[in-house]
UniProtKB/TrEMBL annotation:
InterPro entries membership: Homeodomain-like_sf (IPR009057), HTH-type_Tx_Regulator (IPR050624), HTH_TetR (IPR001647), TetR_C_Firmicutes (IPR039532)
SUPFAM superfamilies: Homeodomain-like
Keyword match DNA-binding: yes
Protein name as it appears in the record: TetR/AcrR family transcriptional regulator
Organism: Cohnella cellulosilytica
């Protein structure tokens, strides 16, 4: 049983090294220019090890995006009982802790796929909250959700591109105020 734990830790460390290498390359090269050999060399693993975990660089990118979006989803309170700051603070802390990923995904012009998926994630979450609380304004819920998703993604992009000049707590509170002001939350 102790051996399985060691193997899991080694696999985890290997995947982390591959991920880190890929993200470092992604910030300086177009995806099409990145090779599995580049990733393997920078991660200090052999090419076969990369293929053991990912079918190709596109699979690696897709799994990274899915993993991070699923973690962001886990911070959302489906019942709506958590105060907004309680949902937003973990999101900003997570983004801060995974700066390399979010910087690579949002700070390059090659990041359209991630940006689109993040927008969809936020707009669906906001729309669900708007529908749960019932119509309180003249604003169309779909348009309000799209507006707030664009605002959220834009704020996160600004925060990352400017080197996170404010702490996550400040960002969560400011975004909460914007959501409240736009009648997304009471």
């Amino acid at each position: 049983m102790g051996t399985a734990a060691k193997v899991d830790r080694r696999v985890l460390k290997t995947k982390e090294a591959i991920t880190k290498a890929f993200l470092e390359l992604f910030t300086i090269k177009n995806l099409e220019q990145i090779t599995i050999n580049d990733i393997a060399d920078l991660a200090n693993v052999n090419r076969g090890t990369v293929y053991l975990h990912y079918s190709d660089k596109y699979d690696l990118l897709d799994k990274l995006i899915e993993d991070h979006l699923n973690k962001l989803i886990s911070f959302c309170d489906p019942g709506g009982d958590t105060p907004l700051t309680g949902e937003l603070l973990p999101v900003f802390l997570y983004i801060q802790d995974h700066f390399l990923f979010f910087n690579a995904m949002l700070s390059t012009i090659r990041a359209a796929v991630f940006r689109s998926r993040l927008m969809e994630f936020v707009s669906v979450n906001v729309k669900e909250k708007l529908e749960r609380r019932g119509s309180r304004s003249e604003l169309d819920d779909e348009l309000n959700a799209q507006f707030m998703a664009s605002a959220f993604v834009g704020i996160v992009e600004w925060w990352i591109q400017h080197g996170m000049p404010h702490p996550p707590e400040y960002m969560a509170k400011q975004l909460q105020n914007l959501f409240v002001k736009n009648d997304v939350y009471p």
